[in-house]
Specification:
This protein is α+β, with helices and mostly antiparallel strands. The protein has 2 domains: about 210 residues, FAD/NAD(P)-binding domain, CATH 3.50.50.60; about 90 residues, D-Amino Acid Oxidase, subunit A, domain 2 (D-Amino Acid Oxidase, Chain A, domain 2, 2-Layer Sandwich). It contains 11 helices and 19 strands. The strands form 5 sheets. The chain has an 8-stranded mixed beta sheet. Strand 17 and strand 18 form a beta hairpin. The two termini are about 20 Å apart.
Length: about 375
């Protein structure tokens, strides 16, 4: 996305990707796009297939022991979210970048970053059996939590903030047509469960589980039994079962590295921050990051204005911390914490009942879920 935005501004870039194109386009990750993210994609000329195939959701449902209550986003905020898988966004971006003649290199080998604190940084990359050297003005570290970019910053420069949650999500992709129009977040005495979807034919479902559990111990029958127990509603609705196409377990953490810039290296997306998935913010924060970064670079190249680059990290971090708060709040609100004393469990239940019955509380949830406005850089 950053490469595309820079192209629209007449700025050249090179994208180095460790994986194959097929892997990038098939890897299933997030699926909920904020109203803000959808507008970014449309303004960048990437809304065609998104508007045709994306699933508009005007709200979500919160559940408590089988009883559901709808949070009507559009009624409360005038905005909605769109379910459109991250891999679909990636497909659209790759196709557009290649059509525009981008320098997009898949299946790159080892990459090293050099002279990041100088005026002309460069990279050495193993590719097609040889080694290339790429000299540039800036390097954008969009290489994820485990990438090399953040690790290339000297010790003592970054301040790391982290929280590890005592829970994980077991997620599945199932060949089963969705039977609900919107996402259902269910708090249950056996643990949290989420009913979601990726297309008119595919559902995406999650179960709270313990960190470190072995996915091999979760047979398809066990998964469906647990999903039925947690998601079934008092009005008789139950999730439709189908062939499980993918399954995996993901631990939950909050992570922020600040600042997002050192010398000529700028961090964006998961390289800089991780949010627990309950707030549906990961991909959306990454899109906001590169919106700010592309605007800062546009001002620098077209007007010699370096102030935008100075404001890049603070602008991103203000949004990141608001998203961290929302994701932490949703996580704390919806999950079962086994070690929590009875007082905390009763308080949590009262808070969830309040959100389900109070219009102001529901509005606060809706405003954060659909995406806060992007501030001026």
């Amino acid at each position: 996305m950053l490469s595309h935005l820079l192209h629209l501004a007449g700025i050249s870039s090179t994208v180095l990707e460790a994986r194959s194109r097929a892997y990038c386009e098939a890897r299933v990750r997030a699926g909920v796009l904020e109203h803000t993210s959808v507008e970014l994609l449309r303004c960048a000329g990437l809304g065609g297939r998104l508007d045709r195939e994306g699933l508009r959701h005007d709200g979500i449902e919160l559940g408590l022991d089988g009883e559901r209550h709808r949070i009507p986003f559009h009624e409360l905020t005038g905005k909605h979210v769109t379910v459109y898988g991250q891999q679909e966004v990636v497909k659209d971006l790759i196709a557009r970048r290649l059509a525009d003649g981008a320098d997009l290199r898949f299946e790159c080998g080892a990459v090293s970053l050099q002279d990041l604190d100088g005026s002309r940084p460069w990279m050495r990359v193993q590719h097609d059996g040889g080694a290339d050297e790429i000299r540039c003005d800036y390097i954008a570290g969009c290489d994820g939590f485990h990438g090399i970019s953040r690790a290339a910053i000297p010790a003592g420069v970054l301040t790391i903030h982290e929280r590890i949650y005592p829970l994980a999500w077991l997620g599945i992709l199932a060949e089963a047509a969705p039977t609900r129009a919107e996402l259902l977040y269910m708090h249950h005495r056996r643990g949290f469960a989420l009913y979601s979807m990726r297309s008119p034919r595919i559902t995406r479902l999650y179960l709270q589980c313990r960190p470190g559990e072995d996915i091999a111990e979760w047979s398809d029958d066990r998964i469906w039994t647990e999903l039925q127990a947690r998601l079934s509603c008092t009005d008789g609705w139950r999730p439709t079962e189908g062939r499980i196409l993918q399954k995996g377990i993901t631990g939950m953490r909050s992570f922020v590295a600040e600042p997002l810039q050192w010398g000529r290296l700028l961090l964006a997306g998961d390289a800089a921050h991780i949010v627990p998935p309950a707030g549906a913010k990961g991909m959306n924060l990454a899109l906001a990051d590169v919106h700010y970064l592309a605007e800062a670079l546009r001002r620098f190249y077209h007007g010699g204005d370096g102030e935008g680059l100075k404001r890049y990290s603070p602008a991103c971090l203000r949004r990141v911390w608001k998203a961290q708060h929302f994701a932490w709040w949703m996580t704390s609100l919806l999950h079962r914490f086994e070690a929590a004393p009875a007082f905390d469990q009763k308080r949590q239940r009262a808070e969830l009942e309040y959100v389900m019955s109070s219009r102001p509380a529901a509005t606060a949830l809706a405003e954060n879920y659909v995406g806060l406005p992007l501030e001026a850089l």
